[in-house]
Design a protein that fits this description.
Blueprint lengths: L13 H22 L6 H14 L3 E5 L2 H10 L8 E5 L4 H9 L3 E5 L21 E4 L11 H11 L2 E5 L7 E3 L5 E3 L6 E5 L13 E5 L2 H11 L3 E3 L2 E2 L10 H11 L2 H19 L5 E2 L14 E5 L4 H10 L29 H9 E4 L7 H15 L1
Parallel strand pairs: 2-3, 2-4, 4-5, 5-8
Antiparallel strand pairs: 1-9, 6-7, 8-9, 10-11, 12-13, 13-14
Helix pairs in contact: 1-7, 2-7, 3-4, 8-11
This protein binds pyridoxal-5'-phosphate.
Length: 380
């Protein structure tokens, strides 16, 4: 690595991003502290309307976090205990957790080994009379093959809930040439505003999207204690609100979302250029029909060297992430949903070979160069 100066590198750099919008954020927070509209203040509906416009979707309903968004979406579909929900096994736990929590059955399926998104290959084999929902996860920042997902769902009369926690801002192109924002194609879309997400707030937050007026009304009701009017509760719901201060911050950051995506795409393009063709590394493949907003830049490492490269990078000051190290069906909480010995080929392989490099909106050329050199050094 020669005499390269070691820059301080983080997986994400929220501080520098904040400093660029500090004046706007600080005054929005002060305004809410002064008017004390902490719960359901005007910033919440202002942000919901602005996000509806950005996404070109009829309804955006804020809620407390991305996990609640998925739970509330499922609660709105009038499912019965034991109904089955198809979900990729290579995802964050929240996607499957809410299914189990509602006494539904997660049916775990494999992902495409190159795009990391749900594979449609063997779906026919898992369909039963009880299958009611499919939850494609737009992993790492690009859309699943939504045209095929929707066709499959239509054929089998399934609801589609998009887990868009990692892909907000990405665009999907249909074969007729039309486009739609990720999260607005299925019956319901869900997202997370966790701080490190592409559109992240300064605490917890989430939202649910739908073009269906009836579902939107139900979702709003469920997120508010199942209340139809004050102190009248039509169904069992929950208390899941997007906090006013978080909504005000998100409304400011929404104006920069496309710029943030572009910054991430530029880092990814630099990584691609430098690492494509390096023996032992596969750069992330792009889905044909989706833009990629790079929540994560994820390589696969062959030859069983993934853990060695993590150690090497750590030693030279480069943090990395492994999303995700264990297939969901091997987690103690989920193993009883599948028969003994259940394995999915791509999921197994990816859990052993993926590594995510630092990527965020504030990365300097110097940091990128240092990371690239660090990775290449290992393979030389
Ligand atoms: C794919 C996916 N789904 C759901 C969630 C849950 O979001 P939250 O942490 O806001 O509950 C996350 C967050 O990490 C996620 O990455």
């Amino acid at each position: 690595m020669g005499d390269i100066k070691i820059p301080e590198i983080d997986m994400v750099n929220l501080k520098d991003q904040y400093l660029k919008i500090k004046n706007q954020v600080d005054s929005a927070i002060v305004e809410i502290c002064e008017n004390t509209q902490f719960i359901k203040g005007p910033a919440v509906s202002r942000f919901e309307r602005n996000l509806e416009q950005y996404l070109n979707v009829k309804h955006v309903i804020g809620c407390a976090n991305g996990t609640d968004a998925l739970q509330i979406a499922l609660m709105a579909l009038d499912l019965s205990p034991g109904d089955e929900v198809i979900v990729p096994a290579f995802t964050y736990v929240a996607t499957a957790e809410v299914i189990a929590l509602l006494h539904l059955k997660p049916i775990m399926v494999d992902v495409d080994p190159h795009t990391f998104n749900i594979s449609l290959k063997n779906l026919e084999q898992v369909i039963s009379q009880k299958t009611k929902v499919i939850v494609p996860v737009h992993l790492f920042g690009q859309c699943s093959d939504m045209e095929s997902v929707m066709a499959f769902a239509d054929n089998h009369k399934l609801f589609v809930i998009e887990d868009n926690a990692q892909a907000i801002g990405s665009d999907y192109s249909f074969s007729d040439g039309s486009t739609a924002k990720s999260g607005t194609i299925g019956h319901i879309g869900c997202t997370s505003f966790f701080p490190s997400k592409n559109l992240g707030c300064y605490g917890d937050g989430g939202a649910i999207f739908t073009n269906d007026d009836v579902l939107a009304q139900k979702i709003r009701m469920i997120a508010n204690h199942g209340q139809i009017k004050k102190y009248h509760h039509a169904v069992i719901g929950c208390n899941s609100r997007l906090d006013t201060i978080q909504a005000a911050i998100l409304d400011i950051k929404l104006k920069y979302l496309d710029k943030y995506s572009k910054a991430r795409q530029e880092v990814a393009a630099n990584y691609d250029k430098a690492l494509n063709g390096v023996d032992g590394i596969s750069i992330p493949e792009r889905c044909e029909k989706s833009t990629h907003v790079f929540h994560q830049y994820t390589l696969t490492i062959s030859g069983g060297k993934r853990n060695d490269i993590i150690t090497h990078l750590k030693d030279i000051g480069i943090p990395t992430g492994v999303y995700y190290p264990i297939p969901l069906y091997e987690q103690d909480a989920f193993c009883h949903y599948q028969p003994d010995g259940f394995k999915l080929t791509a999921t197994e392989e990816l859990c052993k070979s993926v590594i995510s490099l630092p990527i965020h909106t504030e990365m300097s050329k110097e940091e990128q160069e240092y990371i690239i050199e660090g990775v290449k050094f290992f393979f030389n």
